[in-house]
Amino acid sequence: MTKLIIDDHSVYIATGSKELDPHLPSVVFIHGTGQDHTIWVLPTRYFARHQRNVLAVDLPGHGRSGGKPLSSIEAMAAWIVKVLDATGIKTATMVGHSMGSLVAIVVAARYADRVRALGLVGTAVPMAVSESLLASARDNSPDAIDMLTLWGHGAQAHLGGSATPGMWMLGGGRRLLERAAPGVIYTDLRACDEYRQGLNDANSITCRVLLILGQSDLLTPPRAARDLGAVLTDSEIVVLEKSGHAMLSERPEQVLEQLIRIV
Amino acid sequence: MAKPKTFSLDTLALHAGQKPDPTTGSRATPIYQTASYVFKDTDHAASIFNIERTGHVYSRISNPTNAVLEERISALEGGVGAIATASGQAAIHLGIATVVSAGEHIVSSRAIYGGTHNLLAYTLPRFGIETTFVDPRDADGLKNAIQDNTRLVFGETLGNPGLEVFNVPEVSRISHQAGLPLMVDSTFTTPYLSKPFDQGADIIVHSATKFLSGHGVVIGGLLVDSGKFDWEASGKFPTLTEPYAGFHELDFVEEFGSAAYIMRAREEGARDFGACMSPTTAFHVLQGIETLSLRMQRHQDNTRKLIAFLIGNEAVEWVNYPELPQHPDHELAKILLPKGCGAVFSFGLRGGRQAGQRFIDRLELVSHLANVGDAKTLVIHPASTTHHRMDTPALEAAGITEGLIRISVGIEDSDDIIADISKALRRSQKSLGS
């Protein structure tokens, strides 16, 4: 774990229990709406043991990082670059889930010299958010957590079958969102909804891009990433059968196998 | 836009945690009767050992059949994860040992199962863990019993055998104000009648031997983590918030967030104490849970019919059941247990201890044994069996009289249960006069 101060606020970065070494290849993991670094626990630990610098960040106002949540995808991308600067890392593979995938797109497009490859897990461009979800989140209603949890897991996951023994995926997903401070989920969702430059940004990305999509994803269905895949110059799309949006818990092994190809 | 939907308890009881076996298509959960699991290569092995990949290493720590059961009970309770153990007592021990260490302290309801009382009062002190027992109805007493070194508050949803209704919302508020988790034994109520996590509990334990498996054929336990307790904010739980030398300096809260407790329980407690459930037992418990709703409702219906009969019987001095207006927790039960107060209750016979013994000896259909939660109707005399190690003051403190009969109502035809008990009641009273 590494702790930094950026913009006068504490920053938490999970490193897979290893010290950062700028000489090793690096990977930055960026979580989604209302979440934190814990969604990446398995790949974090895997890549840390496989001679990678791992930086699973908690975005401002999330998890163990201080400050308020940033209000735009562009601001989050700029913040990620500050993390790279603060840790002395010149280039890294950017891997983002959901909202984090949009952040990764902006980093790759606007700070191209800092990105080696891109992994977009559960992505869509644009990532429009329904008015009912935004309204519930604005009111800090438990309904928002219900929607994100239940729509965020594929039909099969609603009956379980966790790859991690003994874990109930819906319960874990719900608890993680419940820990978000009031306003965080709304700020994140609004940032996703208002980010409309995705295709323009993607058009300028030159690095290799791997899109990992869930066949049964209701929040970012594969069809919503079709245009994105079309404008990227070096991309590959992998669709995980019967997976919903919560691929890190629904299909952790398959996600890891794909990430190994680019990290 | 319509609200999102998911499956109800009845459906989860049948399906949660299991999908048809990908290799054979088996619809039922296979019994993976294996001690260990073949790794693909050395790196795969290292990855699983280091919690980088999912999978099983050794059935003491996890097993595919057990994992289905663990996931199912987590789904039914609304938790993040669970561990299946060799018995209910093993679940309680694992639950305690994960967060309480030598020199620390527990506050427990005194109206608890005799076996749990033994563990807390006599056995754990040998390992440096002390317990203060309190009246579960005395919130101030419970609050005052919390010490600087207290690390856990414990109670049963329904006291054993007095059926005190544990005020989970109030006790959880007191516990949380003190930075402590509340562990609740929900054996008597099961998720069909009570959802302690929804009421504020943080950890649930079950004796799966009882209503969950439901047929008196296995011994097993379950430890379930709500994932709600903020271990970091409490600052009292270094086993979860500081690097663990026993697992490469792993900090469980940092790495696993809301699943920290159950992960530590597995990676340390299941690994080192080793009180794992047999996969065959897990299969039997799963079979039981499939019909949990049907059985629990039948248990409940039969209980109400039997109580109505007993109340009108001249051989019966009193009946203790929270659904009765005279029960001290009647109003609380209506709030916390609206679907019913379960199938275990106690009653007293005219003639005290002697009448009680004669009643039991004259039963023919109903079985006299040390268990509850079987599909068959069971009775026992606590003072001479489950609570026999308790002296008279301790018995009185737990609300147990010498003539008390505890009954666990089964799912036989209620008329047959009542007929057997009616006959034994008559004979118990005749014997007194002879």
Structural topology:
The complex is a heterodimer of chains A (263) and B (434).
Chain A (H helix, E strand, L loop, with lengths): L1 E5 L2 E6 L11 E5 L10 H9 L3 E5 L15 H15 L4 E6 L1 H12 L4 E7 L9 H8 L3 H10 L17 H10 L5 H11 L3 H6 L4 E7 L11 H6 L3 E6 L6 H4 L1 H9 L3
Parallel strand pairs in A: 3-4, 3-5, 5-6, 6-7, 7-8
Antiparallel strand pairs in A: 1-2, 2-4
Helix pairs in contact in A: 2-3, 4-5, 4-7, 5-6
Chain B lengths: L8 H7 L26 H8 L14 H14 L3 E5 L2 H10 L7 E5 L4 H10 L6 E5 L4 H7 L4 E7 L11 H10 L4 E4 L4 H4 L2 H4 L3 E5 L13 E5 L5 H4 L3 H4 L10 H5 L3 H13 L6 H12 L1 H20 L4 E5 L9 H7 L7 E6 L2 H10 L5 E2 L9 E3 L11 H6 L6 E5 L5 H20 L1
Parallel strand pairs in B: 2-3, 2-4, 4-5, 5-6, 10-11
Antiparallel strand pairs in B: 1-7, 6-7, 8-9, 9-12, 11-12
Written overview of the protein:
Chain A has 263 residues and is of the alpha/beta class. Chain A is 38% helix and 18% strand. Chain A has eleven helices and eight strands. Chain A has an eight-stranded mixed sheet, sandwiched between helices. In chain A, α2 packs across α3 and α5 runs antiparallel to α6. The longest helix of chain A has 15 residues. Chain B is α/β, with parallel strands linked by helices and 434 residues long. In chain B, the strands form two sheets. Chain B has a seven-stranded mixed sheet, sandwiched between helices. In chain B, strands 8-9-12-11-10 form a five-stranded mixed sheet. The chains are: A alpha/beta (263), B alpha/beta (434). Chains A and B meet through α1, α4, α5, α6 and α11 of A and α3, β1 and α12 of B.
